[in-house]
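Let's study a protein:

___
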Amino acid sequence: MRMIIAEVLDIPDADIYLTEADTAVTPVDYGCFASRTTFVLGRTIYDAALALRGEILDRAAELFSLKRDGLRLEGGAIRCAEDEGVNITIRKLAHTSMQKLGRNVTAQAQFTNTTNPGVTGVHFAHVEVDTWTGFTKMLGYLAVQDIGQPINPAMCEAQIQGAVQMGCGAALREKMTIAKNGRCTESLSKYHLFLATDLPDIQVILLSDGRSGEGPFGAKSIGEVCYVPVAPAVCGAVNDALGGSLGTLPFEPDSILKYMAEERGEREE
């Protein structure tokens, strides 16, 4: 969110301080769901930053008795093309506004989305299945995601890579079993997580040409959408390698060996 504000106000994001929301003091809101935090909240932040930008220019015009059209905000300062003597930082403008006008420089915004732009992705998995042990090794992975304009590309890539790790675990290892006494898997010694060392180099390609009309700078969303394709891609690759049709997750070694034994038995018959 700081990057959105920084872009609108043309200031370093390190100069922006954001507090955590507190429901004791914030207005009532029905929530932001379906991976749309950046799409909805980011747009609200964007609108508020635009409103603040306008308020800054209005206040500068009032203090310097100039027309707003002749002022510009760049590099964290207000400047005037017609008067080089007008050069005041946003910080100093806020102080001067309080001293001379007795008013803070503030702005607020509300946003309610009217659309819910679709996001798409296609994932490719390259696997190696050991037919002796039933163990599946990930050799390569490519994730292509259409998320509109990425606000923080590095964070988007990291989120997708994390989703791939989670999806690989769901596809190949992680299994929750319930015993007859009602106790479920309760130890990581039996619930086998997919570790970072088990992963290949996960390549990520972000498509940004299909931008949304409402999201900040055309952003859409990235969340569950990058997790959903992983297990189908990995399991499809395993089935392709085996020439099989396994359909129950996870494709753990025991399941693969059992399937292969059944296939051999059918062929022998």
